[in-house]
Amino acid sequence: MRKLLYLLLGALGFAGCSESFSCEYGTPSVDFTVKGKVTDSEGTPIKGIVVSSKSVQSYDDGNGLNAVTDENGEFVTNKVKEFGVGGILVFTDVDGAENGGDFETYEKELLHSERTQIKEGDGNWYQGEYEVTVDVKLRKK
Hints:
It is built from one helix and nine strands. It is mainly β. Strands 1, 4, 5, 8 and 9 form a five-stranded mixed sheet that branches. A four-stranded antiparallel sheet has the order 3-2-6-7, with no helix packed on it. It is elongated.
């Protein structure tokens, strides 16, 4: 009867916790900010490129990783909380030829981008705060 009870409890996902470790249920998360530079194929900075996100959930205002490049082609996004392993940045030329050419839209995965840890995690599900650097070159249409 005891073996049957253990089998039933195991199949239903019940388990005990000892004092040597804590049991947790949740999803790992990390806070991050993305910065970088957008240039053309010759290395000239491009102003006015909209940097937005896919697959990233903002924890503050719902705007995700929105930013616009400055006159040096540089951008810094809002700080976001990521649940899971990645997201995709989308670089879109919204002004056409006004800032040096009409450029193709480009998508870049964040998963393999350079990351610098700024703040340690809590040792549980929160993995800390990171700054991600993404530099891209856009091609003209």
